Model the fold of this input.
Amino acid sequence: MFGNLTFMLPASGPPRGPPKDVPPPTPINLPRCHPQLRNNDAPGAQGQASGKPAEPLTSVLQSIVRPTEVSISHFEALGVHVVPDAAPAQLLPDPAFIPDFEAWHALSTEEVHATNESTRRRLNTGNLSPGCQTYLERKRELSIANEMAYRTIRRMPPPKGQPQPRLGNAYEFYRHLELFSSFWEDTSKPPAPKAKADQTGESNGENGTGGDEGDKAPEGEPEPVTFFRTGAGHQMPVDYRQSMITAFLKLVAYDFACNVSAPRTEPRLHITSKPSTGSPRSSYFSSGCTFIFRSPTTREAARAGILEGPVAAVSARHTTSFLPADSAGSATTPSPEMDRDSILDLAREVVAALITAQHRAREGRTETRIGENAWWCTKPRWGGGSGGPIGREVDADPTIGDKDAPPPSSSSSKGNDATSLPQRPFSRPVVGSSSSSSSSSSSSSSSSSSS
Done:
């Protein structure tokens, strides 16, 4: 009956500003650790100069017990040489495989359909790579304004006079990016002019002329922002960053018959020293990287769960406490003022690269499982005694007098009628009960005949 009174309620407009209890934003500082390999820093060069035998690389790596013990000397032992700001031509072995993106951007819609097949290249699997049409489609999907994409994710109507954007294959990417907007500022928009707004407010307060002209927004002013940050960047859950990177890589990997999937087991870099004295020492370094695998070309291999690769590895680190550039010191020479988080970040990147190389080195070899034919896999545990797994050792033992045991079957009680009849507890059989019953029956019959 009160459904017609909704017109009396004030309409809730868009929020005018962020909440008051929003924590300050997390500063964005990127890691800066670029070790350079010189001739005298080559692996084993210092040992040859001093006349001492060089320490094995496995011993150098196995000496690391805590992550904070990683230093520049470990990168020098591995021969790590970082080239910052490398161009795509330096990353690919053949620069001829890099497309001419500038020419693709200048194509019209008709020219894209006409030249799409000529821009596709033959891959080593026999399939064709995506052409300029697929590239321009992904570029158009990723060029959608963040706020318009967030409206689609939240199922909000678009502003008046604007169509609803179609996210297409980038829907999952924008869905995870929308979770980022609660912890990080939107860098696609200019910063808010706080100083100018404060000056305007003071002038309006002094003059007292903030009437109709102050209420009217200028014609060129953009629409008010309706999405605000409610947390700090360092408070964001770890899964948000990994999910967004995975969704972004899938936009490119699917067109090349590849898939981004989390590993079934934790990726580990296994290191085994040479058995010089006693048994060899084995250790490992774990990593949270995600691999990009190539899907098999045959249906039988796909059903068997076979994957080719890894083609690449993606390592998403979650550290946000890097020092600014002016206080990090030199990034190429070791110094006590260098940011320790930058060194650990580079170490995690190197571990992900070594794990990828270790997986690729298995091609053409017989799989050797860790612990195969070892004593803990072949000999009985706990001295060979009887018993089941830990915590269930008594499951196989027979239980006597179990109240939950099923009753005995009727076949076992057919031959014994005495046991089948219910017995009165604490009762003894009465001697002569059968004779007394027969005499009483005979006396009753004689009395009836005499009468």
Summary: Residues 340-360 form the longest helix (21 residues). The longest strand covers residues 308-314. Residues 195-220, 433-451 have pLDDT under 50 and may be disordered. The two ends are 94 Å apart (CA to CA).
